[in-house]
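Predict structure. Input: Helicase C-terminal domain-containing protein, 111 residues.
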Amino acid sequence: MLGCDSYTAESGTPTVKKAILDRWVQIPEIPYIVATTALAEGFDYPYVRLVLNIDEPESLVIFAPESGRAGRDGQCAYSMVILPATWEPQVAGDATMDVPGEKSYRDDLSL
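Output follows.
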């Protein structure tokens, strides 16, 4: 449907999973991959420009490495979370954790 590979814990043997990642990295005409949290940690391809989460991340512990896949080469990159219109915050107060001297852009987008 999306015209790109997908990567999940159920994607197959380690050889099959490696082939999926190699194809994604080596074919510039298909610069997208759909992945679950199976690709959240330990994968350091430097040219990821966008990490897109559909629905609320399971936890900040999982979200941090997922969003950290973007911009590993130091270039501008984005991490977006698309939430349903019915979403309600689960944390009271401001949960931001800005790092002094670093840029962080946040915005709410209503569709």
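The longest helix spans residues 14-26.
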